[in-house]
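Minutes, methods subgroup
Present: GH (chair), OT, SY

1. OT presented the first of two proteins processed in the latest run. Sequence and structure tokens recorded below as shown on screen.
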Amino acid sequence: MADFHQNGHVATLHDLRRVKPEAMERELEQFADTRKITLILPSLYSELKGDALTEIVDQLCSAKFINRIVIGLDRATESEYRHAKKFFSRLPQDHVVLWNDGPRLKEIDYRLSEMGLSPMEPGKGRNVWFCMGYVLARGDSEIVALHDCDIVTYTKDMLVKLLYPVANPNFSYALSKGYYPRIADGKFNGRVSRLLVSPILLALSKVIGDHDYINYLSAFRYPLAGEFAMRTSILHDMRIPSDWGLEIGVLSEAWRNLSPKATCQVEISDAYDHKHQPLSEEDASTGLSRMSIDICKALFRKLAADGVVFTMETFRTLKATYYRTALDMIESYYNDAVMNGLYVDRHAAEKSVELFASNIMEAGEIFLVNPMETPFIPNWSRVHAADQDLMRLMTEAIAQDNTEYSEENA
């Protein structure tokens, strides 16, 4: 049974198990009659081969509250794009597959790069950004939701709960973020959130003092959750990172652009699991090691933009404070796990903390060498101001891809 605690920074909407999911879904269908909803699914082609995405599509087939589904497809050849179109063809909703590696969207990307507006690197951020641009170009959705394609415990109810706060016309929320416990196979998961984000936010408070932005991020129970729902109107001015700081970046943009009362977090599941990334101790360019560096850089850049001054001495102090704080939290997680019949590998947790502590310094050094580094992709308002034809051309290119590579033209 969930509690009903409020932290005072962002509204927390709990699942107190008092309303049947079917009743909430019927309400959402009524809201969707006048507030059209689009779902964005950023996907690697490799995810079509797993069980998770197959189950997600099966669940979405009965989601009558969804008006359109936009699938961003990465790392796909022409034959794989054709297969993806067939894979998603059973969706009854209006849907479209963006072939991000196809010649037409590469031409759009080249046009952007000529203006200095192209996303800097491939990845989830770039994929989501193009999907957002397509949603804005279509101009017929009031609400957009986003979630990953590797959720192995997915149910349609998760999406219902995620969307409800922004779809309900009696609520004033412009963005909702999902949260849940990361428990699977009898153990705690969510290493980066538990062992990096939570302790580094506590450490930053100790090192630089009380700060509204840190308090804001600390209010989220699972800040790295990849499930968002938002009013489409806020997408125009949203600058999202192209690196692995996407989730922190979206929350940062909400903090910059919205009133705190317009943001909420909502409990969407009590059993959530997805594909796990390797720690990658030997290779800082991949896995959780890369993710931890990108997240730290995102935090440092945001705080610096808000007037915080960083030096190497600051980062050394932060590393030491983080390390002690994280070790104390491992003890708390271990005790929590024991009381709930779960397992925490303390040795593996301490190895993760040691790596993250080292990566705090790595991220700090990168930041000091190039404090003006900006992995944020320009917002779509800027793109439209620079080239008023681009969004139309992108929409036409996507439509041509979906027609030319259909089964009938195979």
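2. SY then presented the second protein from the same run.
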Amino acid sequence: MSKLDQLIEQALSDQDKEMLRETRQLGWFALGASQFSGKLGWVTWVIMVVQIALFITAVWTGWHFFAASEPLTALKWGLPSATLVIVATILKTSLMPQMQADRILRELKRVELMIAQKAG
């Protein structure tokens, strides 16, 4: 917690402190897990299933790559393996912008709640 966060918490009443606890910032893993629920949770499930399938296939083709004794056979298995690993990585990192957007929306909701309580 930063010095600014401590000053804000000291200035708030007990009711406001409770609101801060309820809308606290989620950790990395909790934020990642929250992507699997909500209106667009199914998209995350599809991306993760496809990403896992691509990764397993990449491991399988990579196994054949390292077992190959001929250069042409190694190339035949190595290129698909490298391509599948890259695509799987891109799919996994495609969820990062959504996680950041969720963090910002959560903070906006927190500010809206604070304003509504002060106005009411």
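Chair's summary of item 2: DSSP finds six helices and no strands in the chain.
Next meeting: continue with the remaining queue.
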